Structure formats: C-alpha cells, structure tokens
Amino acid sequence: MIFDIGKSKCVFSKGYFGKPLGIRKPKSTDIDRPLELSILETCYLMELGVLNLHEGNRLVSLDELKELGRKLMSDFDMLYSTYKELRNAGFVVRSALKYGADFAIYRRRPGLEHAPYLVKVLRYGQKIDPGDLIGWGRLSHSVRKELLLAVTYPSGARTYITFKWLKP
Questions:
Q1: So which residues are the catalytic ones?
Q2: Domains of the chain: which residue ranges?
Q3: Burial class of 84 by CB neighbour count within 10 A (0 to 12, 13 to 18, 19+)
Q4: Which of 24, 56, 129, 145 shows a CA-CA span of 20 to 30 A to 62?
C-alpha cells in the first residue's frame, strides 16, 4: 500500500499501477486515495527504482520480495517475467483471476477501455486439459476479449499464441 496520497497519485498517473482503495475503475488519474499494489507491480516498480518497500522501519530488498512471491505463488518467476515483458511492451497489466486467466492487458488503461486481451501463462510442455482450453476460449469470447497463451520456454523466452472463435 502507498498511503501518501501525493505519491499514490504520482505512481498511478505515471503508469496506471495499482488500484486506488475503494475505487473499482477510476475514470481519472486524479485520485485521492491510498494505492494498493500487487506483489508483481511492487517488484516491477522496485526493479525500476521507482519505489522502496518498508516493513516497519526496515527496508525490504527486491530479492526478499521475490522470495515472498515464490512462497505465495507457485509460478511466480514465470508470471513476473511475463508481467514485466508485457509492461515493457507498453501494456497496462492487471490480474484476471476473475476471468480464470492470469492477466488482462490494456492498450491504454482500465476505466478508459475494456481490456482487449486475456493472458494465460503456461510452461512449455505443460499438459493442458482440452476442457480447460475450451473453457478459457469460451470465457474470453463471452467477455469480448482475445485469449493469448503466453508459452514460456525453459530458456525464459516466450511465445504468444492467439485464439479466436470461428463460426463454421
């Protein structure tokens, strides 16, 4: 959490990071609330040198935060590297757990547009149940988003595969 309103406003307006407390979809960058950041966003901003994380008076290192991420999320490293790649490509990246995907990505920002894509991060060689693939596709289609599978290779390279529904 960023409790300082001025700093919250600055971080949110510079890249639409986090969620202003109590505002589902802010229409403006002129927020007047504390900002809640995900662990992925916090790692990214720490890596960029934009913010420091404190636990009480103690400064938490990026390595410590990543280790916590690994304890909380089984595929943390793969998710974080995908998050970082999408952010570096200019997308605004949000959690898409409510859609059964890992990320929703925006070209501009939430509140101005709907996310055009849902991203499911997969490990190369990972077995996928055909029913899961159909479910992801049906859900993304029903919410009018394209489904991207972000297939991550052991080298860390990634391929994005797009799925679209076609009517025969």
A1: 106, 114, 145
A2: 73-168
A3: middle
A4: 24
Query: Across 53-126, where does the E strand assignment appear?
Result: 53-55, 58-60, 92-95, 103-106, 117-123
* Topology (CATH level 3) of domain 73-168: Trna Endonuclease; Chain: A, domain 1 (3.40.1350)
**Coil vs helix vs strand at 140:** helix
What residues does 2 pair with on adjacent strands? 35
Q: Which residues contact 60 (CB under 8 A, 6 or more apart)?
A: 53, 54
- At 116-162, the pLDDT tens digits run 999 999 999 999 998 888 888 888 887 888 899 999 999 999 999 99
Global pTM reads 0.91
Model pLDDT for residues 104-116, shown as the tens digit of each residue: 999 887 767 788 9
